[in-house]
Amino acid sequence: MSSEAKTPVKRSETGEMIHNAAILFVITLIAGILLGLVYQITKNPIKEQELNKVKGAYLAVYPDAKEFGLDNIVDSEKASELLAKSDFAGATINEVREAYDENKNVIGYVMQVTNKGYNDNVSFSLGVTKDGILNGISLISIAETPGLGMNAEVDIVPQYSVDGGLPTDQVYEVVKDGSGKSDATDTKIEAISGATITSKAITAGVNAGLLYYQQVLK
After folding, report:
1. Quick count: other Cβ atoms within 10 Å of Cβ 6?
2. 6-65 pLDDT, tens per residue?
3. Which strands sit side by side in the sheet containing 166-167, from one edge to the other?
4. What share of residues in the chain are helix, strand, coil (percent, to 5)?
C-alpha cells in the first residue's frame, strides 16, 4: 500500500519538471528570436553610423578633398613587413584611401591606424598630401582612462594640427618636460599628463602611417 501511495507523487514531480523545462525552453527560444530581430533591425544603422564616423574623421584630416576612394588600397603584407622592422611594430594600418579633388585627381591619402593604448586599442585617421605634408590626425575610437588618456582629443590631436601642416619625413617623439611642439619643424609631442602610454601609442601610430607613406605610397 505504501508503494502504491508514493508512485503518483513521483509521476507528479516528473511531470512538473518536464513542464518547467518546456516553459524555460519556450522563453529561451522567444528571447533568442527577439534578440535576432533586434540585431537585424539595428545592424545596418550601427554600421552606417560607424562609416559616417570614419568618413568624418577622414574629412577632418583632409578637408580639401572632394571625395575619397571607395577601395581600401593598403597593402597589408607590405605594411606588416615594414612595421615589423621598425620601432612601431605594434601599430596596424587598417585602411588607406585616395583623396580626390573636384576633377578626380589624386591629391593625397587618408589612413586609418590602430595601436594599443593603456586600456584598449586607439584608432585614428591621418591625412597626407602628395607633396609630403601631414594635415593632421582625428580620433575614431578611444577607450582610455577618463581624465587621463581620454584627454587625447584636446592634448594630443591639436599638436598635429599645425597651420601649413607637418613634414612627413621625420619621426615624432613624446616628451614629458613641458617642451612640447613649438613650431612645424619641432618633432616633440608633449605627453598627456598622467597618460604617457596613450600619448606614445598615438604618436607611434602616426610614425607608422608616415613610414608607410614614405616607403610605399610615395
Report:
1. 9
2. 555 455 677 777 878 888 888 888 888 877 776 666 555 555 555 566 678 899 999 999
3. 67-68, 92-100, 106-116, 121-129, 133-141, 166-167
4. 45, 25, 30
Q: Cell numbers at residue 58, please?
A: 577622414
d(CA 192, CA 139): 15
Q: How far apart are CA 178 and CA 160, in angstroms?
A: 16
Give, for 191, the enclosing helix (H) or strand (E): none
CB 82 within 8 A of CB 212: yes
State the cell numbers at 80: 606588416
d(CA 33, CA 17): 24
Cα dihedral sign, 189-190-196-202: negative
Cell numbers placing 110? 587618408
Distance CA 119, CA 110 (A): 26
Pairing of strands 133-141, 173-175: unpaired
CB 120 within 8 A of CB 140: no
What is the rounded radius of gyration, in angstroms, for the C-alpha atoms of the chain? Answer: 27
Per the rule left: phi > 0, alpha: psi between -120 and 50, beta: everything else, 68 is beta
pTM over 0.90: no
Could you give the count of Cα atoms lying within 13 Å of 188 in the half-sphere of its Cβ? 11
Maximum C-alpha span of the chain:
101
* Pairwise CA distance, residues 55 & 63, whole Å: 11
